Amino acid sequence: MKKVTTLALVLLTGATLAGTVSAEPPRGPQPERMVEHMSRQLDLTEDQQARMKTIFEEQGEKMRALHEETRQRIDGVLTKEQRAKAEELREERKEKWEARKDKMKERRDPR
Q: Does the pTM exceed 0.90?
């Protein structure tokens, strides 16, 4: 039962963390896009927009750090073999995500 729980935790965390530390721009909502959306909805002033962007950027940094810390803690619990398998699973999820992302991009921007 302990192995099943550990594997489930690894898979769940891995799905959440896949690709969080890379040279690519951060995934998920971008501060500029979020501020733009809120500005349209709430009629924000330029000062409010700048302050909101700072808040979103800081929050993004905190979330990336938390994800990395969580991944390191989980890896610390796993054996060498389990870490290798977990990394394989992360890579598979990352590849699938990239394929889905490309497919969605093609739908939005047909050429």
A: no
